[in-house]
Amino acid sequence: MSCAGCASHVQKVLQKQPGVISASVNFATQTASIEYDKALTGAMELRKAVREAGYDLVVAPENEDGDKLLEQGEKQRYRRLKIQTVTALILSAGLIVLSMTPLANFSWTGYAEGILATLVLSVCGRSFFIDAYRQARHRRMNMNTLVSLSTATAYAFSLFGLLYPQFWTGRGIHAGLYFETAGVLIAFILIGKLLEEKAKRKTSDSIKKLAGLQSKTATVVRPDGSAAEIDIRDIGVHDIVWVKAGEKIPVDGVVTGGYSFVDESMITGEPVPVEKNAGQRVFAGTVNQHGSFKFRVTKPGNETLLAQIIRLVSEAQGTKAPVQKTVDKITGIFVPAVAAIAALSALLWMLFGGAGAPVHAFLAFVTVLIIACPCALGLATPTAIVVGMGKGAGQGILIKDMDSLETLRKVDTVVMDKTGTVTQGIPEVTDMKWLVPETEEFYRILYCMEKSSGHPLAKAITGVIPYAANSPDSFAVEILPGKGVKATIGDTDFYAGNTLLFTAAGNSDEVREWITAKEEESHTVVLFGTETQIMAVFAVSDEIKPFARQSIKQLQASGIEIVMATGDSETAARAVARRAGIKEFIAQALPEDKLRLVKTKQQEGKTVAMVGDGINDSAALAQADVSIAMGKGSDIAVATAGVTIVSGDLRKIAAAIRLSRNTVATIRQNLFWAFIYNLIGIPLAAGALYPFTGFLLNPMIAGAAMALSSVSVVLNSLRFNGSPLKAGTNLF
């Protein structure tokens, strides 16, 4: 694809195919994201349709890596473009020497120029003419149409003047030769395309760096104790992998033995190495710094967190901003409109240009075609998105689509869950009180109930239960989001959770005082018992995150309202809110209460971001204008969210908002310069200033300006400031 018009055409072709549900084509990344019904069409049918439209679609066989094939194709194209550019420069330099030095006075010079120009157009510029012909067969026009028309016109005009000079001299007109114009235009356009390709490759560096983190092999410990190095594609779940100091961790897993510090900065954006010992999770792509350890594989190859990040960012970079839809419509009619303006300019010059009308008409026609290139418009939005989302991925901020990124900058209200969001999400049981005699049976029931829940509080309680055994007979568990867990054993229902589960159960003044005292110390209280009797109470402490107060203060200082919503009691919620610096909170909130809170804020005209990490947050996450999931939370929360903070660091919320503002600002800058360039360039090229100043734009200068317009847009996107967040920095 040579311009945004190409991308728009390919997208329309794909969308019209039977079985295609949706298709989005990204000009900057040269990729297509297609959702289709396999029963009605397939990859090869789609490829055929794209080829019939004059383009091509790379389809990788099942046993080959499509990204590698694409990268190989890009390298070959870049190498070919480089050779064409160097050749065009050498030949064009010869044209300039022949036409702009005393050599121009010799009779043979014109023929030498014609030979050099023929070589430039037929060898170096051949691809422009071939593509323009393909487009013409389908009654379409693109950037290559403009280049081909302008250079062919200059070449044909000069060739006619060389072979039949009497046609012009007989009419008293000195037409001159413009072979150097045709040759230099091709050279300038090729230079622009080469610089553009080089810059575009840089925009996807973040993804390439992430992909480069993936190991190719791993050392697996076999059941007999021997070690063998195998391809990571052959690693299975539950295999034991041995990682030595300095090695990359090949897949995700849980440490089974050994001790080390692991650099996880490439995944989370956090620079401080993380201590790892038995029971802790490790992730593919991170680097083992000091000791060695063994871990049990939980997620192989393409299921690892790193693979998910690469997939998510790649998909996100292919999404389009709402403003891009308008740009696509403009570029769809841009080339035909430019061709019409060029023809109209030539006609006006012929009618009102006086003695030099034919030459001026020719120059105006060529210059308008050359200067009006839609590439800058087509690159303005996608390059900024690719760079912005890549920068975010490098900081551990994953953005699912452009809608989330664009809306994020407008957020003025942030609703936060407590556990795992404001607090560490690694609670510990500090106190427990049994109100009935402790028995192994009760411990066994409680253990099995809490083991069935993925909530951090449940994990804390299972950690202090001295008995762990198989489930009792007839054991059925039901998760009650926002409340706790219910288990039915025979005819008896047991509950473990907050006070909302025990409204019918009475408790003594002593127990109430115990609960109140613990909640005032910002502990969360978990109760265990039946519907009518509380059998045990547990006090669980979950410290607030290290930078929670600082992060919340930053957001509040920028005018963003913070509300905490938690299923905890009012006393415990107030204590945590006070320590975190949150002024507004709601306690004992069920999933529907959190959903209602988000809706209420939206009805007040607020743009709401919901931050959560649990199943009970998923409804509110789906309702919010922007949903932000803590990366260490539940799969459903991460799947629902538009933004994922991999490390769970609250400071990254402010960084994500800054990322959104910077990306959208870059898009606007790019679009401004792309539009203003064409707005000024086209009238100048048509000769609008000639009646007043005698100024006519040289076609070669127009070619250089056109080449630089696209490059400047890409370079402006690369200039994007995506530096990591520093502690204590006010981002707004």
Structure notes:
- It contains 27 helices and 24 strands.
- The strands form 5 sheets. The chain has a 7-stranded mixed beta sheet with strand order 12-24-23-22-13-20-21, sandwiched between helices.
- Mean pLDDT is 80; it is low at 722-732.
Tell me the layout of helices and strands.
Elements: H1 4-15, E1 20-26, E2 31-36, H2 43-52, H3 66-99, H4 109-124, H5 126-137, H6 143-163, H7 166-169, H8 179-203, H9 205-212, E3 217-221, E4 227-231, E5 240-243, E6 252-258, E7 260-263, H10 265-268, E8 274-276, E9 281-282, E10 287-288, E11 293-299, H11 305-317, H12 322-352, H13 357-371, H14 375-394, E12 397-399, H15 402-408, E13 413-417, H16 418-422, E14 428-434, H17 440-451, H18 456-462, E15 475-480, E16 484-489, E17 492-497, H19 509-520, E18 524-530, E19 534-541, H20 548-557, E20 561-565, H21 570-580, E21 584-586, H22 591-603, E22 608-612, H23 618-623, E23 626-630, H24 635-640, E24 643-645, H25 651-686, H26 690-693, H27 699-718
Parallel strand pairs: 13-20, 13-22, 20-21, 22-23, 23-24
Antiparallel strand pairs: 1-2, 3-4, 3-5, 5-11, 6-9, 6-11, 7-8, 7-10, 12-24, 14-19, 15-16, 16-17, 17-18, 18-19
Helix pairs in contact: 1-12, 3-4, 3-8, 4-6, 4-8, 5-6, 6-8, 6-13, 8-27, 9-14, 11-14, 12-13, 12-14, 13-25, 13-27, 14-25, 14-27, 15-25, 17-18, 19-21, 20-25, 25-27
